[in-house]
UniProtKB/TrEMBL annotation, chains A, B:
Its EC number is 3.1.11.2. The record marks H264 as: Interaction with DNA substrate. Probably binds two magnesium or manganese ions per subunit. This is Exodeoxyribonuclease III. It comes from Halomicronema hongdechloris C2206. Pfam families: Exo_endo_phos. The gene is xthA. The record marks N165 as: Transition state stabilizer.
DNA sequence: GACCTAAAAG
DNA sequence: CTTTTAGGTC
């Protein structure tokens, strides 16, 4: 049994949009048994909290904190070590009139482990540029800035991860030439995310890897994965002290090769044990 | 490659309601490779003819004759040896005004192999006693009698098989005590089927096995298969010369034990090679 | 309980 | 393409 607060190996935090915990449970539990991950942040669980398979995670030595809804969205944090201060929704931090309707969809959960605050996000997809859902995405990102700014004031060590549904730079897309007005790459949403990062967050992946062609999501259609037509939209954004501390950030493409995979791959950031 | 008209082993004809050929294709092709079946009659294929996986059967040395529709019903005959005189629907034999609307649902296909005419049927379920669908089932069985009478005049060796959705006797049901007004066991549908058999057909299975508790269908619900709460509703009814010729008739329950099974098991009748 | 369709979401 | 829903069949 693993459960010590201090571990003989580096601490790992992972994010993975699993596109239905019901369908993907075997992949997720197998992956947790093959990798020494301390905290796994899941998006698109797609179940109400009562239907989340808590027991399957307890059986392999993990506890789960869930914040879900029927059919769509839903986030969860899976942890070997007990988590502190689990907070669900923007309204756990922000005033109700600031949040408005943005908590109707379950997309935000955060918790504290040791001296690190981990935020797990499922940013709205936005459908297409200029649509109502696009406006919702921009409003959501603006609210996220306020949310993270308050958290950062409380926790200098902030690890913000999840499915951001935004590829910040052209090198994060398989072919950016025709994507200027494409959802996940348009100027307004990139700017909205840059404003979020402006509070003092940096991309853990780009600390270690400058090359293009590194992706975390491939469309199910058109054999995109086989042809590596992907996007890097799943991220770990770190506050300065954590950015300095991070010793690796990698994308594990192996689960994307399995039968009936999620369309996303997990992204792992690693810290030394103090 | 097998393909000789004369075979060094007995000839086998099987019937199997596979409840979607799309979902069950792996079970069906595996079963054909594990069993020396000459003709396999399928019901509830649930695909239009253009979507039937012909190639998968050709790959294992079988040809398929299909008569399907979208979403519901649908029958097919799978054969190692080429089939002669394939006929689809009642209207291939009966006058259009006799058939009426009874060919709108694809439930009848027949073909000739050697000196035997094989008829493959998916009899309407009938929903509940007294319903509109029940009346349709009775009308359909009356039409079937005319259809088979004409075929029998042409082919003295008639093997009529399929999912009849009728358990003729109480020993064909796990507990008949409360089934007198149950669909598949009510007096009117049993009488309608008896009238069909009256043209000169006998139950191949009962030539060899008198015991109760022998079933071919178990409801997916209430763990019916595990508890053997089944019905014998899939049959081979044979004209006199074939009834004399038959050397076995068995139900293969093994496929019902697999993952994601059909709710029906195949039933096989065997004839000596002349 | 396991199939089917259809639409919505990604 | 894959997932979800709801309504229908058996």
């Amino acid at each position: 049994m693993l459960g010590d607060a201090t571990l003989p190996y580096p601490m790992q935090v992972a994010t993975w949009n699993i596109n239905s915990i019901r369908t993907r449970l075997p992949h997720v539990t197998q992956w947790l048994q093959d990798h020494v991950v301390d905290v796994l942040c899941l998006q698109e669980t797609k179940v109400i909290d009562g239907d989340f398979p808590l027991q399957a995670f307890e059986d392999i030595g993990y506890q789960a904190h869930v914040y879900g809804q029927k059919a769509y969205n839903g986030v969860a944090m899976i942890s070997r070590v007990p988590l502190q201060r689990v907070r669900k929704g923007f309204a756990a931090i922000l005033a109700a009139d600031r949040v408005g309707d943005l908590d109707a969809q379950k997309r935000v959960i955060s918790a504290v482990i040791g001296d690190i605050c981990i935020v797990n996000l499922y940013v709205p997809n936005g459908a297409s540029v200029g649509s109502q859902k696009y406006d919702y995405k921009l409003r959501w990102l603006h609210c996220l800035r306020d949310y993270l700014q308050q958290l950062l004031a409380e926790y200098p060590n902030l690890n913000v991860c999840g499915d951001f549904n935004v590829a910040l730079e052209d090198r994060d897309i398989y072919d950016a030439s025709d994507k200027a007005n494409h959802i996940m790459a348009s100027a307004a949403e990139r700017q909205a995310l840059q404003t979020v990062l402006g509070i003092g967050l940096q991309d853990a992946f780009r600390k270690f890897t400058a090359e293009p062609g590194q992706f975390s999501w491939w469309d199910y259609r058109a054999a995109s994965f086989r042809r590596n037509l992907g996007w890097r939209i799943d991220h770990h954004y770190l506050s300065d002290p954590l950015y300095e501390r991070a010793i690796s950030c990698t994308i594990d493409v192996e689960p994307r090769k399995l039968e009936k995979p999620s369309d996303h791959a997990p992204v792992i950031v690693e810290y030394p044990t103090p």
